[in-house]
Amino acid sequence: MADNFQNKYHLATTVNQLQAQKLSQQVFIGPLNTLAQHQFISTNNIRYVIGILPCHKCCYYLKDFEPNQFTCINVDPDFNVQRLTEFEGECLMRFNTKFTPNLEVLTDHKINNSIVTNLDIQKILQEFILIMNCIKQKDPQAGVLLFSLNGNDNLLSLFTCAYVQDSLNCDSSSAYGYLKSIRPSIKEIERGSGYANELLKFEINNKAKKLQLENSQNTIRVKSKRSVTDCDDHLEVEMEYPRSFKRSF
Question: Superkingdom of this entry's organism (predicted)?
């Protein structure tokens, strides 16, 4: 998959910061204004739009998108319904009503709310990876846009780096270096910061999860081989002792 990742942008310019960059074969990362670039959306077959920013802003910016064209998702670790104004609450309800059914079908009802939030960022990261993997498996020709207000903040970088880690099986440092090469304008993630620590936790958790899955698959393969061997032994017995002989005995 590493061959599919393209490093096209090496200089951080004003124009660069206003454009979305290609992160992988189907995934793009950029700022809010990418939503208004209709030619970009059409050319890259963007059908999944994931905003990683406060929900009241995301729901407002995506209010004119329709579920027959897009599946829209908001990732907001700081979501608090009590902070919303009446107008913001109405926007959120409309957002959920429109886009949650698409997300439920996409994830086989493993995720049932288009506002992805949790007090535990690691759980949100895992749900985000689940969504990205479901898109790759079920709709591989569709484009995905990950966006925040300016496309450069640490929260967007955290989720983007997690996706790169999961896709390329690399460590957090390599994932961040790759993202920086794609979009040089991103804000630095300071060592020891909350974002850096969450990224390291994800690296450890994701490796452990994949190792557990690999061990489970190996166990299934071994059991399958044993079952085939047992079946062969049984067939050999049947050949050596015809049914008529067994009945008479």
Answer: Eukaryota
Cβ atoms of 135 and 105 within 8 Å: the answer is: no
SS3 content of the chain, % helix, strand, coil (to 5): 60, 10, 30
Judge if pTM exceeds 0.85: no
CA distances from 232 to 52, 55, 227, 228, 238 (A): 55, 59, 9, 6, 10
Angle at 120 between CA 99 and CA 153, to 5 degrees: 70
Residue 123 tokens read as: 């759980």
Six token digits for residue 84: 């919303």
Distance, CA of 52 to CA of 77 (rounded, Å): 9
The 10s digit of each residue's pLDDT in 224-241 is 666 555 555 544 433 343
Residue 247 structure tokens: 């009945």
Q: How far apart are the first and last CA of the chain?
A: 61
What are the beta bridge partners of residue 52? 75
Q: In whole angstroms, what is the distance from residue 108 CA to residue 23 CA?
A: 26
**In terms of C-beta density within 10 A (0-12 exposed, 13-18 middle, 19 or more buried), how is residue 189 classed?**
buried
- Give percent of the chain above pLDDT 70: 81
Can you list the domains of the chain with their CATH numbers? 2-188 (3.90.190.10)
Over residues 30-51, mean pLDDT: 96
* Burial (CB count <10 Å: 0-12, 13-18, 19+), residue 204: exposed
